[in-house]
Amino acid sequence: MSYLRTSWQSFVCKIIFAVGIIATYLHAQIESAHPNEAVSNLFVEAFAFVSDQPGKGRIDIYVQVPYPEINFVKEEEQYTGRFEISATVLSQEKQQLWQKSQLVELHLKDFSQTISNSSFSLKQFSTDLAPGKYDLLLQVTNQESKKVESSKQSIIVKDFWNDTLALSDVMFVRRMTIDGTRKNIVPNLTGMIGKEQNSFYLFFEIWNRAQLDSVQLTCKFINSKREVVAQRTKSELLTGNRTQTIWQIDTFSISPDKYLLLIEAAGKSKADSGKSFCASVSRLCIIRIKNMPLIITDIDKATEQLQYIAQGDEISYIKEAANPDEKQKRFLEFWSKHNPDPKALYNELMEEYYSRVEYANKSYAGYMEGWRTDRGMVLIRFGPPQNIERHPFDSDNKPYEIWYYYGQNREFVFIDETGFGDYRLRYPETDLWGRIR
Fold first, then answer.
1. In a domain, 143, yes or no
2. Are residues 383 and 414 in the same domain?
3. Model pTM?
4. Which of 208, 365, 395, 435 could anchor a disulfide with 3, C-beta 3.0 to 4.6 Å?
5. Cis preceding-peptide flag for 35 (omega within 30 of 0)
6. Residue 5 to residues 10, 71, 331, 388, 431: CA-CA distances in angstroms?
7. Domain termination residue (choose one: 249, 271, 288)
8. 172 with 263: CB under 8 angstroms?
9. Does some domain include residue 90?
10. What is the model's pLDDT at position 332?
11. 247-to-173, 202, 205 alpha-carbon distances in Å
C-alpha cells in the first residue's frame, strides 16, 4: 500500500526527529548493553621514533581533549576546567611498564570557548621502550563530574637500531613553528584533511645507518580496492643518521575518500658498491569534503541517506543537480534549513545524523548496508535506546531484541527470523510513517 505524507505530517515528523537528535546528542554515537558506559570523544595517537637510548624507540603520545568534554565552572570572571590525564603502557603479558598522570587546569574568559568543538587541550607524553608490541591505556577524568573517558590501542615500536634504513611513524601537521634549529609541531590527530586546503604537511624521520647521501621518497594514496589513485615523489638529502622531514603534499587530483597513505624511501649507497636500501611506513588518511561532517566522503551516498529526514522531492532536487558543485550546494542548503543554531560554527543536527548513520553501518550491516536495516532506521531516527533487552539464545523463541525509549514512551521489537543476524522490526506493526508492514 502506498502512503503519501502530507506537508503537515512531514513537518511534525521532522520536528520530533530534530528534538530527539538534540536531546540525545552527547550519547548518540553508541548503542550498548551497558547504557552507562561513557562514550570516548578523545583523540589519542602514539608515534614511534628512534630513541637517543641505543636499542630503544621513543614513543610520543598525544592526547587531544575537546573543550565540550570538559566540565567548566564559573569562578569569578572566568571559567575553569580541571581534568586528569593518565597514560599507561602494558606489555602483551599485561605487565605495567610505564605510567604517568598529569592534572590539567584551564582558565577561559569567554563561555562560548567552553562549548566550541574547534577548541581543545593538547598534551604530550614521551617514554622509551624496547622494540615490540604494547597496549596504551588512556584515561581522562573530569574533576568536577568525575566522569571518566578511556581509550585503548596497540602501539608498535620498530627495531630501528637493527635497520640500516628506516622510517618513523608519520604525523599530519596542524601547525608548525621553527625556533632556531628546533621545529615545534602541533599534530593533526584526526587523520582528516580538508579538500579545500589544496595541500597538507607530513612530518617523519629518516633513520639512516646505510650512510646514504639522499633517498627518493614516494607517497602513495591507496583506496579500499587496493588501487593506487595518486602518487607524489621527491628527493630528500640526508643529514647524518637522523633526518627530520617536512613534506608538503598537494591534494588537487585526489577525490574525497578514505585512503591508506604509504610512504616509501629508496636509495643507493656510494660507499657500499651501489647497494640498494629501502624502507616504508603507512597510516590512514581521509580527504574530506568542505563544510561536511568528517564521515561524509561521498555526496551521492550522503544524499541517499537523507531518507529518514527528507521528503522524496527534496532528495530528487539534490540528485538532479547539473554538476558536483551544484549538488554539494543543494545538499548544504537542505541542511542549513535544518540547523538548530544557525550561528554555530557547525550544524549539530547534520553532525549527529551522520554519526548515527556511521554507527548503523558499522554495527548492523549484513545483507544490506547498516543504515538501511530496521535497527539502523530506528537508531538514526530516535538515537540510542535507554535500554536493550537481548534474547539471542532462548530455546523456545527466535533471537530477538527489545529497544526501550522511556523518555519517548516507545519500544521496538526486532526478531531475527533467519538466525543470521537479520533483525526485522515486528513491533509496532506499522513502520515509522504509518504504513502497514
1. no
2. yes
3. 0.68
4. 435
5. no
6. 6, 43, 22, 30, 13
7. 288
8. no
9. yes
10. 92
11. 10, 5, 11
Q: Residue 410 sits in which domain range?
A: 7-37+290-427
Q: What angle do CA 140, 144, 145 make, to 5 degrees?
A: 75
Question: 3-state DSSP call for residue 23?
Answer: helix
Cell numbers for 346, please give them: 557547525
Instruction: State whether 189 and 92 are in the same domain.
Output: no
Cα 404 to Cα 78: distance, rounded to the nearest angstrom: 41
**281 and 167 in one domain?**
yes
Residue matched to cell numbers 588512556: 138
432 occurs within a structural domain: no
Q: Is 9 helix (H, G, I), strand (E, B) or coil?
A: helix
Total domains present in the chain: 3
CA distances (Å), origin 351, targets 22, 117, 305, 319, 348: 11, 12, 13, 21, 5
Between helix 324-336 and helix 312-319 the angle, nearest 10°, is: 150
- Whether 2 is covered by a domain: the verdict is no
At 175 the three-state DSSP class reads strand
> What are the average pLDDT values for consecutive 10-residue runs of the chain, which has 437 residues?
31 40 34 33 90 96 89 90 96 96 94 78 96 96 88 94 95 84 82 78 94 95 93 95 93 86 93 87 87 80 94 95 91 90 75 89 90 94 89 85 91 91 85 50
Report whether 160 contacts 166 (CB < 8 A): yes
Does one domain contain both 302 and 422? yes
